[in-house]
């Protein structure tokens, strides 16, 4: 028997569908899970994506990619390449492994949801490949991270992070539960494949891949490049879904995209911003985080929303101002609360690095320089203890990241201001106006307790720093610390220093 | 029908209660959790908040400190209870560089 040519059968099988007769459509695709909302059911017949991959092609391509990536890994494992990588760069990869590996599994569940409840056969078909992609990404990332455990126990958090109560994964679970776990399929397609995979993952997978090659980490670059090519395909579910939703319910499309974009912007400011502008060695930085954001996110996002007749989000001005602020503040926060991390955050504020920061961010010295100077003077006074935290940062009720975003007042000063609201007799604090607005509109959905909420509710015992670290799963062998204090403080040794606290080994 | 009014409870007569605050030392970079009690004075609140920032990230200055709550500068001798500061309220602590801010009492 002669095999049919692909073009003779592919169009027919890719969107094959059921004609239901024994049950109602609502029983098979309940609205709370499928999420058609105001969109007429028949409108989804027009759902269309460009890749149209078949299963044999999918398997062939993935097999090729797997072979290539593992060949690189096997070759490099027999070399001392990893041992010569900069400690700051290693931290960028530890953040990635811990923050991404098991999130991929959650993404697999989201794809499975779309594979079952997507409102068109072609969509469900594409989501099946998406699910296989995400399973592969989880396996690949976990396996690559696992290979490094023998070299450094912090890589053990590749597998561990997402199931601990460390404040970083709590923030990540809050974000991804909203995108992937609790969303209906239509909202999921707009937040996960569209805002997250079409936009923001480029930062981590394309931009960081370039930095990886510069830093000499071919293994990491090979791994994430292999993953990114999958993203490009299954992320097409996003625009295909948007096209139909925007026609029938533009207000909902606008809100879901706005919300998804903001949540992504907060998370990537914490995950990718410090890695690019502080951890990556100066000589290996391709661009600043802001430059990457403008090129990969801002321009592309504006093009997308204009193509579909949507408006700029209400928070656009606040977001654009944030590109000079958020990740610098979060970097200082990550460094200050370094005992709560599974990596070694490099401060990255030597004189030369500060020159670069000032060049890329003209306000940097004004907003952050004074505080880093006091920290530097404490370290040079042999008083590292003064730079360690004795309480928790206040964590935003929406994004669960520290409330540390200064804004410029009329007098020109940069200050972190109170952004709060009272609801049902409770006072809630937020890191930004955007997070407060999203909480208010989504208040019936938001239910994760921040680490501060848990601490105040008595869930963390004993209510001490060791009790907190134990609750977060932090053990002595992984507890984060600066990898090299001298590297960024030596430029300032011997200068006049006043107004330091006198604790620890203070001079 | 008349009811006998309840005797007014004076804040000072109550056992001190925990008041966790969202606080910032004005030029620092982050809001922090600072636990105080209803019996603490405003000067003690200022010291408790400053402890986490002053000389660590914010250079210490030889000026008295002030506490701002809901836009009001609070007198240093007043207690947290008298000032009406509630759990989870926000307070800002700053150096008194001007000394010309009007002092108000809690109503």
TrEMBL record, chain A:
Protein name: propane 2-monooxygenase
GO molecular function: monooxygenase activity
InterPro entries membership: Ferritin-like_SF, Phenol_Hydrox, RNR-like
Enzyme class, broadest EC rank: oxidoreductase
EC number(s) from the headed UniProt entry: 1.14.13.227
Transmembrane segments: none
Pfam families in the cross-refs: Phenol_Hydrox
Cleaved signal peptide residues: none
Catalysed reaction equations from the record: propane + NADH + O2 + H(+) = propan-2-ol + NAD(+) + H2O
Keywords in alphabetical order: Monooxygenase, Oxidoreductase
Record carries keyword Membrane: no
